[in-house]
Amino acid sequence: MNSIKSTEIFSNGKISQIITGDKISNLSRYLPPETVVITDVNVNHLYGGYWSNWPNIAIGVGEKIKTLDTVNEIYRRLLEYEVDRSGFIVGVGGGIVCDIAGFVASTYLRGIRFGFVPTTLLAQVDAAIGGKNGINYNGFKNQIGTINQPDFVLCDPVVLQTLPKELLADGISEVIKHALIAEEKLLDFIENNYNAILSLDLQTIGELIHHSVKIKTEIVNQDEKENGERRKLNFGHTLGHAIEKVTGINHGKAVSIGMLIAAEISTKKGLICSDDLARIQSLLKLMNLPINCPSNRLEIIDAVAKDKKRQAGQIYFILLAKLGKAIIQEIGFADLAEYIKESKFLGS
Ligand SMILES: NC(=O)c1ccc[n+]([C@@H]2O[C@H](COP(=O)([O-])OP(=O)(O)OC[C@H]3O[C@@H](n4cnc5c(N)ncnc54)[C@H](O)[C@@H]3O)[C@@H](O)[C@H]2O)c1
Ligand SMILES: [Zn+2]
């Protein structure tokens, strides 16, 4: 049996607890009587029995609903339920629910208390951790948002059993990212336990989530507002976002290729050796993530350029100094374009 473990984020004089090893069936123990549950229709259908004693708001699914319209509708419902400053919101669902619930809780009545029960692996290791609560605006992802930590995050791997396998890969990609940027031991753990992870052995996946959460919380505790250290969490994402946009493949797969190209650049700069790169490639393949992506390199370069414009011209690129250690370097756009043109991980 898993023991209950807690990892803390310290922010604004408050402690935010990320709990692993407890069950979603114990959710009621975490919820004050004034709770309103925000979830999505799928998750409500599967797990709604655990919050039947509380009012709930079930939103739709898909990135398109992560907008101010959805937020507006939730504000309206909260007023209808007469939620006041003593109210509590718990978001139960994937990254979209966590982002929306966190944003609503951070703005309704200038902020009320909230918690998360992430139900996808991506949300358990990434979206629910670190306090970023963003919504999309005018076609731009996470353009509006807050940084505000929940009181608690409850991660129970048992809910991953109903998750489509395709979505599991998204979370695994972020776990591998955490290992590559901060802890080689986690790489060993994944390599040694890949079968148990892919078949969702609860003990193993519980350990994996705990390791991964610890890495992200340590980084967030050093740099909550992303002025330095937290940028390392963008490893594989500058190119990953561009690949996602151009090819339409999902986030985790795009980040897999993005991480490979960033590791490839790290070898070209003499930071890691080609054996290290080969090890990353084998691990991604083992975990059913893509290691090559047929795509138009010029379109990818163009997408990176557009992204760069939004970030006021700077590209803080994340490279690997060794396996388990990331470094931040500014890379000139022309150099980056050259690396993309030469990469063996992109197709035509
Ligand atoms: N705030 C952050 O720091 C942060 C970090 C990473 C990603 N994100 C955001 O997270 C979002 C993606 O999150 P996601 O991948 O969890 O997607 P998602 O929230 O869209 O969930 C994916 C699908 O899985 C379903 N689902 C959720 N849990 C399930 C379960 N246990 N069983 C069966 N089905 C289930 C959902 O209904 C949905 O259809 C993006 O909007 C992204 O921007 C935010
Ligand atoms: Zn990501």
Topology:
Layout: E1 5-11, E2 14-20, E3 35-40, H1 41-47, E4 56-59, H2 68-80, E5 88-93, H3 95-107, E6 113-118, H4 121-127, E7 132-137, E8 140-147, E9 152-155, H5 165-182, H6 184-192, H7 194-198, H8 202-222, H9 237-247, H10 251-268, H11 274-286, H12 297-310, E10 316-322, E11 325-330, H13 333-342
Parallel strand pairs: 2-9, 3-4, 3-5, 5-6, 6-9
Antiparallel strand pairs: 1-2, 7-8, 10-11
Zinc ion binds at residues 174, 237, 251, 255.
Unreliable residue runs: none
From the alpha carbons, calculate the radius of gyration and give it in angstroms. Answer: 20 Å
Instruction: Give the percentage of residues in beta strands.
Output: 15-25%
Query: Biggest sheet: strands side by side, in what order?
Result: 1-2-9-6-5-3-4
Report the top-level CATH class of the largest domain: Mainly Alpha
Tell me the total number of β-strands.
Answer: 11
Number of domains: 2
Overall structural class, as computed from helix and strand content, comes to alpha/beta
CATH topology of the largest domain: Dehydroquinate synthase-like, alpha domain
Report the principal-axis shape.
Answer: globular
Ends apart, CA distance between termini: 49 Å
Give a quick account of the main beta sheet: strands, pairing sense, barrel closure.
Answer: 7 strands, mixed
- In DSSP terms, counting alpha (H) and pi (I) runs of 4 or more, how many helices? 13
Q: In which range does the helix fraction lie?
A: 40-55%
Chemical compounds bound to the protein: nicotinamide-adenine-dinucleotide, zinc ion
